[in-house]
Amino acid sequence: MTLEGLTSASLGEIKTVFNELEPVPAGARQGFFRASFVGPWWLRASAGPGLVLGGLPGWQGKRFIDANTATNVLQRRHGVEEKLRMSCQESVSAVDGRMGVALIYGADAPLPWRWIRDELRMLDDNTWLAMTVVDVPILRGLALPFVLQREA
Prior knowledge:
This protein has a single domain (3-151), classed as GXWXG domain (Lipocalin, Beta Barrel), CATH 2.40.128.580. Helices cover 18% and strands 47% of the residues. It has helices at residues 3-7, 11-20, 41-53; strands spanning 22-23, 31-37, 59-66, 69-76, 79-92, 99-104, 116-124, 127-134, 143-151. It has an 8-stranded antiparallel β-barrel with strand order 2-3-4-5-6-7-8-9. The longest helix has 13 residues, at 41-53. It starts with a helix and ends with a strand.
């Protein structure tokens, strides 16, 4: 499925695509990746306000400091700000049970981020499909997609 196709695909269709992709290798995890929301209209419409409520207003994407560390990039009135570092870990995917790569905020992160993991798979070298999983019992089965695209 193309990036354009993901934009309005159902969560089930996106999960099927995700399950067929390979995890992002360590060598590719460098630089800034601009985020865009994909999936059903209700998810795309609520993603930005949800991030504001979660403490990430103006979220633009993620910057990989190195292969094992990333941070969120926010556009603020005073300029660009980085917030909430994550570690990048190889682990079993909560989405499909395969070995994969996930960004983990850690137990000391503020709520709700300590419960969130972003799993990463490659659409191509510069475009990744990510699935956000919230590790609380009632939401554990729900994976929310977004795309990360490398910028120069």
